[in-house]
C-alpha cells in the first residue's frame, strides 16, 4: 500500500505545474504536494486554505479526474498523482492538530448578508471575513451546508467534516441565522436596508421533474430521497426490494449507491446518455457498478403507468418496460428564487454587464445560479470571486 509520502515523492515538481492551473479553486496542488514531500504539513495546509476554505470537503468530493489529476504530467507516464488523497491527508492532519490557519481581517465597518450557506456562500463568507467585512448568513434550514449537508451521502462526505468546515468559518466571525427564509421570514428589502451588499447563494435546491411523473404516487425526487437518508442516518424503513432510478449524473450515482448500501436488492438505473457521454464522474460510476447496480444507458422514458415505465432507446430501435416498486427521479435541480426579486432565466442569473451583478446594484449572486460547472470546487471559486467583486465595488481594504 502506497503511503502519502511515497505518493508525494512521485511528483515531478513541474516548474509550471499544469495540475495547479487546472484547479478551479486555485488550491495549488503543486505547492502543497511539495510541502508534504518535505514533511511540512502545516505549510501544505496553509497553501490549501489560502485558496479554499472548504479544502477538507473538496478533498473528498471533488472530481479530481476532471481537473488537477487529468492535467498531471505523471498521468502520461504511470498514472496521475493521487492529489485528492494527499489533500485529504493534509486536511485530516490539520483537523487532528487543531491548526488555526485562517484569520479575520481588521474590521472595515461594512457588512454583507449572504442568503444560503452552501459551498459558495460559505466560501464567500470566509473571504469577506478575511477582508474585514461583517458577515451574516441567512439559512432557511436548521443546519448549514446546503447540499453538502442535505444531499451528499455520509459514505462520501461525513457530517462531521461538514460541521468542522462550517465551524471554522463561524470562528472567523461569520454569524449564521438558522431557520430564516428570505422572502418569507424577512424580505430582500429588509436586507438591502440593513447591509452594504447582499449575496444570493441559494443554489439549485428544487428538484426537476418530467411532466408524466408529476402526480405519480410511486415517484420521489433524488433530492428528497437523499435528504431523508441523511437525516435518518441511513435508516429508511419504507424502501422496497426493487427500485428504478432515472438519471445519470453524480446525484444519480449517489442515489443508486445509497440504495444498495441501505440493502435494496434490485437497483436499476436508466440513463439518457450513453456510456461514452456519461455525466457522472468515473469514480462515482465505478462505485455504483461495484455495489451491483444495473445501469442501462441510452434510454429515455416515454410512458408511465403508476409503477410501470416504458423506455425507448435514443438511437436504435429498442423499447423496454420496467416494473418497479419505487421510482426515483435524478434528472437535475432547478433554482427556487421565490420572494427574492431576482431575475432567473434558464435556471441562472442572466448577467447584463459584469458577472455576479444582478439588476439591483446592491445585490450579487454566486454559486449554482451563476454560469459554470455545478461542482463544489467551482462553487468555491465563485464564492471567492463574488467576495472579491464586492470588495472592489465597496472599496474595502484587504487587510493582513
Automatic annotation (TrEMBL):
Enzyme class: oxidoreductase
SUPFAM superfamilies cross-referenced by the UniProt entry: alpha-helical ferredoxin (SSF46548), Nucleotide-binding domain (SSF51971)
EC number: 1.3.1.1
Domain Dihydroprymidine dehydrogenase: 3-98
Keywords in alphabetical order: Oxidoreductase
A molecular function (GO) term: dihydropyrimidine dehydrogenase (NAD+) activity
Keyword match Hydrolase: no
Domain FAD/NAD(P)-binding: 110-383
Catalytic activities: 5,6-dihydrouracil + NAD(+) = uracil + NADH + H(+); 5,6-dihydrothymine + NAD(+) = thymine + NADH + H(+)
Record's subunit section: Heterotetramer of 2 PreA and 2 PreT subunits.
Function: Involved in pyrimidine base degradation. Catalyzes physiologically the reduction of uracil to 5,6-dihydrouracil (DHU) by using NADH as a specific cosubstrate. It also catalyzes the reverse reaction and the reduction of thymine to 5,6-dihydrothymine (DHT).
Record's protein name: dihydrouracil dehydrogenase (NAD(+))
Organism lineage: Bacteria, Bacillati, Bacillota, Bacilli, Lactobacillales
